[in-house]
Design brief:
Blueprint (H helix, E strand, L loop, with lengths): L4 E2 H8 L3 H9 L7 E2 L5 E3 L1 H15 L4 H10 L2 H41 L4 E6 L2 E10 L6 H7 L11 E5 L4 E7 L6 E3 L2 E10 L2 H17 L8 E6 L10 E8 L6
Amino acid sequence: MKNEITISELARIMNVSVHQIRYFEEKGIFQPAYIDDNQYRMYSIEQIYELSHILLLRRLGVSVSAIKDCLTAFTADQYQQLLRQSLLETNAQIRKLLELQAFIQKVLREQHDFASRPDSFQIKRYEPVRLMRWLEMDEQAHIQARQLAEQARLVPNLFETDVHYLYDGSGTVSLCLEAPESGNITLPGGSYLSFQGLANGDAATDQLIERFYEYLAAQSLVATGPLVLIEKSYLSLFSGQHLHYELRVLLDAADL
């Protein structure tokens, strides 16, 4: 019995395709031990180790064109440097995946919350929220695409972020983003009147605000802070062209 194995057996051992092994051979970074009389490529234990090194380098991000130099010329220090760099990149990918995981959980949680109490007013307790002022505009104006383009560098993942519109009665609305570490505005903790609704377009959004104020007056509730309109654009995945908004206002403790 021969000690060497065929290319299909090698592929099965290394969990790769025959095509991938042939590709490495075409690029001159891997060769069989010999080709037998039947023109079968045959591989020994030495080739198994060689292929394992090639596959490890590929996992570390080394290009096929650079692998030959790595295998023939790299020192131990250079391999350590390569591994350290790969570790840095892997940790960065892990952070991105954890951020994506947290965002997905947030979307599912908030969609469930909205679906369980659509079109209803509630008095809820909120902890303080730190915000970073992003844009300011006239209260009667509406944000345009040009404004987003000019400010895009400040918010790389804008539509994964809750945008807070603060209406303080001055005629100017401040657009803010949550910023736990660098915030320059703090919404105080306390009991808030809260309402979630859908709107399709600026006129519908204005109607939501009017309805909110009408309810506030009808219940004889006194607001002690700005109206906070929170746009959650990612929840529009569940409602077509309608955007999801939450409206909040801090209430006078004497009313509660």
